[in-house]
């Protein structure tokens, strides 16, 4: 099902990211340059009153709020450059500070303030009612209570309203009809609604919000039915969630008008009727959740029109009929959950044979029958599948030998499925004789499950390497690299050397990483990389083609990994070896959008490693030399030689500063990768290596950038005119984006692991900045 740990969590992340990104961008847009001609006593007293209302500021975020600085220089405060007043189009950003106490009513005295971001604190009480000029208002993750103020109906400039993860209750009485600029509304995880018929009447007023892209109403007490006006919401809407409420009735067919939806989550409600066939019009959908909604009828064949779909959750409903064969058109599907329904008949070959299925396929607890499809074009095609659940059905025939090919399989349950009582043999890293009858099937599933978990969590072994990758011969690699000629050498490191080669007979261009087994720890590095690459697959991780664990022509041990060749080399080369475009030598550089794309790619890879694998993977060595660029300059993270065993051996040549960067208390944490990602961002946009000679006596790249923000951003950016393109005037107009990007890097590389930005947040913030630049 789609729940907080799967689908709704991505909603929470997206909400948080949009809030933070827009706060940074709007704040930067409004930040002026100039020196205050005098203090404004009204603003100063209001800010000091706010400080006295906050009872606990454990991160000392308000330590600068004193008379030693002009209040416009206080942390979290932005003033108008022209007026030097907070009340003139300015912002207060006090997010992520663990503040406690009541929301200070004195905030209401800053009546012209446009940005108020109090995200991720422990504030209580109610919202002031006279903040009429806000463009962004976020109190996401606090302890605020009471009704949502009706006065927000009059904030006609509001673009982002995030009240999620609080204790708000009662009816939503806001009339959104005047909020024409609203782009995101998030009120999930509160106590709103009464479970009664009129709880969702406010949704109709949202039809006037023609720029609305995100609507999160999940995890509340909303009752009643979905209004028919749902189909009249903005066609720009991309994320829509009514999940975990008490909504009943039919799903309006007009939902098919929301043609730009990317994610639709309705799980855990009390609907009647079936899935509207009009859902087949939503061609951009990637994630759909109708699980635990009491829907019935047949699964419409129009669902096969959703060819971009990657996760479909329809479990624990009352669906009948057959599994629609049109699901075989969904070639991007990585997860399919249909368990706990009344589906019958055979499983279409095109569905069970979707080679894209990588996470989970669950058809359990239905009335499916027939034979489990065998061979290619069927179950045997799902070679990346991690979890397969088919129990409690009425299948016949033998247990498929094609299960042998599912090398990524970690969990398997075929119990209570009535396969043939003939004894069969199968191999999933071991040989098993399947006992006879139902009890044998249960035992077999348990044994395989236990064995697979043991293998997936144990120490790496060369047999695992051979299971996952074809083992190529030493001789073929010699031929491919012209005898490991220095002319083919493209990189060296403490592990060994990397050569460019051409693999015959298909003329495939490859990169061969040859391990220097004489160096201490290199054998462990080889096994760590094999183990990591055996279990992970992502578009922004370097793709391994094959491996070699053999002996050379002199009988010496030889180990190598063969990767897809990256023609644009490493990010290190682009940042520190190529001069800017237009210099005397005509060498190359990366522009702003290219750097943003690389940042998104690297962050996406880390998000996958940290949050989307069964067990979090820690890379331990994120730096430009380990980020490789393909022909289109898409980034791929490589070099997993330190993965999973930094506590045993640290590469002294890596610029990872200390193992404490990777620890939270006594435990290793993914926060070290977040730190390295932050430093990578700062290095990408300043062009300064964190190991440069200038960084000594307590000065680090993080501190260097932090001290320069916001006014000095363009002075520290790498080749600012080249990076931004055009003349200085054009560069100045893009400086707001540079400030925001650098602040993300600073937030990721804070000294305290608990104070660092989540990697998911960082990715979506950078993505939002890129989207805004694209629209400019």
From TrEMBL:
GO terms for cellular component: plasma membrane. Residues 484-776 form the Protein kinase domain. Its main location: membrane. InterPro entries: Kinase-like_dom_sf (IPR011009), Leu-rich_rpt (IPR001611), LRR_dom_sf (IPR032675), LRR_N_plant-typ (IPR013210), Plant_receptor-like_S/T_kinase (IPR051809), Prot_kinase_dom (IPR000719), Protein_kinase_ATP_BS (IPR017441). Pfam families: LRR_1, LRRNT_2, Pkinase. It catalyses: L-seryl-[protein] + ATP = O-phospho-L-seryl-[protein] + ADP + H(+); L-threonyl-[protein] + ATP = O-phospho-L-threonyl-[protein] + ADP + H(+). It is a single-pass membrane protein. SMART domains: S_TKc (SM00220). ATP binds at residue 513. PROSITE patterns: PROTEIN_KINASE_ATP, PROTEIN_KINASE_DOM. Its EC number is 2.7.11.1. The keyword ATP-binding applies. Keywords: ATP-binding, Cell membrane, Glycoprotein, Kinase, Leucine-rich repeat, Membrane, Nucleotide-binding, Phosphoprotein, Receptor, Repeat, Serine/threonine-protein kinase, Signal, Transferase, Transmembrane, Transmembrane helix. Residues 1-23 form the signal peptide. One of its GO terms (molecular function) is ATP binding. It is found in: Cell membrane. This is non-specific serine/threonine protein kinase. It comes from Vitis rotundifolia.
């Amino acid at each position: 099902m789609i729940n907080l740990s799967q689908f709704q969590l991505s909603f929470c992340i997206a909400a948080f990211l949009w809030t933070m990104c827009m706060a940074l961008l709007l704040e930067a847009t409004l930040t002026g340059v100039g020196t205050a001609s005098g203090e404004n006593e009204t603003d100063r007293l209001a800010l000091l009153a706010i400080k006295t209302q906050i009872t606990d500021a454990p991160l000392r975020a308000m330590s600068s709020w004193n008379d030693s600085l002009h209040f416009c220089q206080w942390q979290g405060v932005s003033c108008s450059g022209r007026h030097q007043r907070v009340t003139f189009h300015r912002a207060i950003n006090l997010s992520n500070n663990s503040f406690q106490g009541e929301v200070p009513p004195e905030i209401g005295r800053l009546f012209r303030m446009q940005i108020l971001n109090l995200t991720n604190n422990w504030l209580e009480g109610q919202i002031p009612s006279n903040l009429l000029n806000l463009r962004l208002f976020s109190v996401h993750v606090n302890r605020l209570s009471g009704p949502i103020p009706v006065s927000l109906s009059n904030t006609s400039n509001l673009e982002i309203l995030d009240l999620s993860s609080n204790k708000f209750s009662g009816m939503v009485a806001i009339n959104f009809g005047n909020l024409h600029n609203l782009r995101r509304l998030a009120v999930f995880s509160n106590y709103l609604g009464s479970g009664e018929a009129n709880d969702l009447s406010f949704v109709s007023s949202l039809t006037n919000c023609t720029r609305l892209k995100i609507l999160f109403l999940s995890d509340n007490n909303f009752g009643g039915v979905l209004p028919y006006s749902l189909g009249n919401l903005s066609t720009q809407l991309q994320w829509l969630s009514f999940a975990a409420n008490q909504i009943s009735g039919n799903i309006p067919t007009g939902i098919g008008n929301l043609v730009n939806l990317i994610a639709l989550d309705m799980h855990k409600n009390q609907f009647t009727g079936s899935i509207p066939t009009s859902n087949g019009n939503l061609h951009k959908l990637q994630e759909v959740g109708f699980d635990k909604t009491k829907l019935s009828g047949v699964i419409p064949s129009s669902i096969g029109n959703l060819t971009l779909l990657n996760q479909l959750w329809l479990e624990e409903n009352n669906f009948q009929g057959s599994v629609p064969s049109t699901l075989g058109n969904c070639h991007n599907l990585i997860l399919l959950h249909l368990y706990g329904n009344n589906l019958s008949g055979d499983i279409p070959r095109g569905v069970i044979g979707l080679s894209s299925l990588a996470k989970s396929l669950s058809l359990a607890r239905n009335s499916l029958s027939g034979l489990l499809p065998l061979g290619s074009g069927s179950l045997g095609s799902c070679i990346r599948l991690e979890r397969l659940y088919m129990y409690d059905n009425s299948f016949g025939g033998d247990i498929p030998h094609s299960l042998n090919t599912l090398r990524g399989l970690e969990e398997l349950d075929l119990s209570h499925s009535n396969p043939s009582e003939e004894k069969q043999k199968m191999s999933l890293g071991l040989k098993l004789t399947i006992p006879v009858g139902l009890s044998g099937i249960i035992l077999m599933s348990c044994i395989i499950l236990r064995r697979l978990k043991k293998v997936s969590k144990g120490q790496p072994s060369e047999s695992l390497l051979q299971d996952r990758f074809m083992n190529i011969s030493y001789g073929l690699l010699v031929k491919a690299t012209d005898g490991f000629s220095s002319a083919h050498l493209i990189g060296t490191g403490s592990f060994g050397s990397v050569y460019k080669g051409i693999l015959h007979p298909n003329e495939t261009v490859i990169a061969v990483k040859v391990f220097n087994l004489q160096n201490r720890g290199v054998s462990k590095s080889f096994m760590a990389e094999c183990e990591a690459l055996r279990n992970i697959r992502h578009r922004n991780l370097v793709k391994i083609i094959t491996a070699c664990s053999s002996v050379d022509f002199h009988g010496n041990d030889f180990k190598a990994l063969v990767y897809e060749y990256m023609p644009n080399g490493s990010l290190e080369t682009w940042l520190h070896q190529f001069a800017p475009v237009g210099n005397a030598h005509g060498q190359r550089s990366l522009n702003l959008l290219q750097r943003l794309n690389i940042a998104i790619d690297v962050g996406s890879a880390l998000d996958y490693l940290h949050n989307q694998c069964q067990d979090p993977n820690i890379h331990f060595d994120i730096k430009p030399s380990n980020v490789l660029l393909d022909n289109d300059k898409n980034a791929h993270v490589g070099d997993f030689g330190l993965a999973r065993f930094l506590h045993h051996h640290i590469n002294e040549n890596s610029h990872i500063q200390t193992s404490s960067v990777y620890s939270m208390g006594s435990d290793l944490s993914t926060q070290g990768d977040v730190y390295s990602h932050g430093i990578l961002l700062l290095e990408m946009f300043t062009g300064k290596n964190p190991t440069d000679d200038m960084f000594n006596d307590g000065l680090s790249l993080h501190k260097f950038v932090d001290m320069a923000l916001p006014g000095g951003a363009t002075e520290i950016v790498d080749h600012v005119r080249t990076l931004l393109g055009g003349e200085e005037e054009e560069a100045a107009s893009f400086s707001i984006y540079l400030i925001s990007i650098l602040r993300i890097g600073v937030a990721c590389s804070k000294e305290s692991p608990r104070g660092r930005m989540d990697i998911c947040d960082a990715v979506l913030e950078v993505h939002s900045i890129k989207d805004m630049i694209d629209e400019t």
